[in-house]
Design brief:
37% of the residues lie in helices and 11% in strands. The protein is of the alpha/beta class and 246 residues long.
Length: 246
């Protein structure tokens, strides 16, 4: 059963902390990226970015433009959105809080889990796998998405992009989450969709599974994944082929 939000968490947990007993748990840990892996979120990101731009008198962005801006965290997305709309990216620090306020309030209006995600996660947990999220999206926004889509109970831990001092592609993002959950690279794997996931997984020395359908800005086939999948529902079979078991 996933750890539940509790009162008294430190602010950086944003209402989500790992309970102490998870440090003693065993079992293989599957660490998932969020945007482009579990959830198609670009429409809500675009809506929030365009509202922020509109309030600043700037032109809106297309879905294709925003899709290419996803993956490096909210500060990078806001800076890229401003630059693409003709504004000075130096405005990003002032625009970021407004973007996050808009997004967190509407994080699951247009977003949807990719086909098979809830069912496959449920099956993996039934088999005995532990599951966690490692995303460059801020912690509060990540929780807003998962709560809005009913996915929050399917995870034992969450590490948003502002949870630790580093984030993907830095392997410390993965390693700190593993440590928090009492896991190690020997009993963990990364499931993602883009180059940041690949770089973090390789540097952390964990197996890597990538989805072809996500938001990668390079060909996923060039990222040397241990498995490259077209559908999320293929994940259990891929883990079997790789010899990764609970």
């Amino acid at each position: 059963m996933a750890a539940m939000p509790r009162a008294g968490c430190r602010p950086r947990c944003a209402g989500w902390c790992v309970k102490t007993h998870y440090r003693q748990m065993s079992g293989f840990l599957l660490i998932f990226d969020l945007d482009g892996t579990l959830v198609d979120s670009v429409s809500d990101l675009r809506a929030a970015a365009n509202q922020m731009l509109r309030e600043r008198g700037r032109k809106p962005l297309t879905l294709t433009q925003v899709k290419q801006m996803v993956g490096d965290g909210a500060p990078a997305l806001v800076a890229r959105a401003l630059a693409a709309s003709g504004a000075d990216s130096s405005e990003a620090a002032r625009a970021l809080p407004r973007f996050l306020a808009i997004y967190e309030a509407n994080a699951a209006q247009l977003s949807q889990p990719y086909p098979g995600v809830p069912e496959t996660l449920t099956e993996l947990r039934r088999r005995g796998f532990r599951t966690a999220i490692c995303t460059n999206k801020p912690q509060r926004a990540t929780i807003a998405v998962l709560q809005g889509l009913g996915l929050l109970p399917l995870f034992d831990g969450i590490a948003g992009g502002d949870r630790f001092a580093v984030r993907k592609p830095d392997p410390g993002h993965l390693l700190k989450l593993m440590s928090e959950l009492g896991a190690s690279p020997a009993v963990s794997a990364m499931i993602g969709d883009n180059e940041n996931d690949a770089a973090a997984a390789r540097a952390a020395a964990v197996p890597l599974v990538l989805m072809r359908y996500g938001y990668a800005r390079v060909d996923p086939a060039s990222l040397a994944a241990d498995a490259l999948l077209d559908r999320f529902a293929e994940l259990p079979s891929a883990l079997d082929r790789l010899g990764l078991t609970p």
